[in-house]
Amino acid sequence: VQLVESGGGSVQAGGSLRLSCTAPGYTATERCMGWFRQAPGKEREKVARRNIVSGGSDDADFVEGRFTVSLDPDKNTVYLQMNSLKPEDTAIYYCASVPRYVGRCGWNDFRNWGQGTQVTVS
Q1: Residues 6+ apart with CB under 8 A from 39
Q2: Handedness of CA 93, 71, 112, 101 (dihedral sign)
Q3: How many CB atoms are closer than 10 A to CB 59?
Q4: Collapsing DSSP states into helix, strand and coil, what is residue 29?
Q5: pLDDT 10s digits, 63-108
């Protein structure tokens, strides 16, 4: 599946952004959808994930309830709603997915990646 992110941009601290990830037919072909990020000079890190099959979700400790992953199958889109943004949230955000043939949804199981979208918080 091809993943295409959008919705990044610049925002002041305390503000909100909603990132979108378009993935045609993902509910039929993917097991999990997730978001990762990579800040300058740092390794890529997990942000949040949603299991399409079980409905479960979880996120990284730093999220602290500020980010939410939601699914809109009718629009072939997955969203990452980010509230109460902090300067340390500045990064390139990537959408990723785990194909159905992978029988689990671990953070290391994500196989398909989008090109990323820049989020800058000042």
Answers
A1: 88, 90, 91, 92
A2: positive
A3: 20
A4: helix
A5: 999 999 999 999 999 999 999 999 999 999 999 999 999 989 999 9
